[in-house]
Amino acid sequence: MSETVVADFVGRFFAPGVEGDPPTGRIILSQRRLVLAADGYKETIPLSSVFDVKVGQVPPEMAGYFNDTVTVAYRRDDARAVAAIEGNDTNIDRFATVLFKVLLNGTKALTRHPAKVGGRVVDSDAQKARLDVTHGELAFKGSDPFTVTLSNVVSVERADRDLGNGKHPVISFRHIEDGTAVTSQVGMTSGRLTNVLGRYIRLRYADVKEELEDVELGEEETEVLVAAYSAGPGVSLAKVVDIEPQRLTMLLNGLIDEGLLVDTEEGTELTAKGRVIVGQRIESVNT
Q1: Is 138 helix (H, G, I), strand (E, B) or coil?
Q2: Which residues contact 22 (CB under 8 A, 6 or more apart)?
Q3: In order of start, what are the domains of the chain with their CATH numbers?
Q4: Could you tell me the pTM of the whole model?
Q5: pLDDT tens across 203-233, in order?
Q6: 96-123, pLDDT tens digit by residue?
Q7: What is the DSSP letter of 124?
Q8: How far apart are CA 195 and CA 212, in angstroms?
Q9: What b/e readout covers 65-85, taking b as 16+ CB neighbours within 10 angstroms?
């Protein structure tokens, strides 16, 4: 390939034309295509044909071969095709992130931000923007730029909305900005990229939400988390919550054990899991 290679590793894969056990071969990703190559086999997937990417969801027909994969759905000879790729944990996680970035970086979008603040609809004009995917953030660059921290996203849905070009599928997602639940709407230049963007946003917080399924908090624990968010690092929580000091220490230790708070040199801070809980609480208050 003449274009720059952004990922190149050895792994197993299953793709059209593979018979029997999945082969081990090279997985090569450039800015334009994904190539799967093994002895006697090569599949080239133009990235312009990719319409879906799933991480950690093994297709049923491949469940007997793989435990964890990146699955790429694409158009091949006017038909739907699927390739599943498996590597070691480090390679496959890095590959998934790079693949999403290559698919989405620099793409044009129509945005409405904010579309809602709390439960109130805002009459914001749709704006043209260019998407920049960075670590943990989506930056929409245009005449009215904004950035979304993905760990602050509390819900995502795909729906038909009019962003000034008629009704088309858009990604509508709620996230926390300065203690308020804000809804943003984004429509990409094509339905396939809109779908990929939705997958990426869900991927970045899905693992955190799954970890929270078994976490049960009382009102005091939730109050402490919200106070930690509002106060920020370096501020003593004893000054902002009306809880007896000994009880507060016990609550803080429990929240640290749950992985919702962490002690740093600057003080006690929320983890990604803690931010999701606070986001859900703020969203419920504002809607």
Answers
A1: strand
A2: 12, 13, 14, 62, 65, 66, 84, 86
A3: 5-104 (2.30.29.30), 108-212 (2.30.29.30), 215-286 (1.10.10.10)
A4: 0.81
A5: 876 766 777 777 888 999 999 998 888 887 7
A6: 999 999 999 999 999 999 999 877 899 8
A7: P
A8: 25
A9: bbeebbbbbbebeeeebbbbb
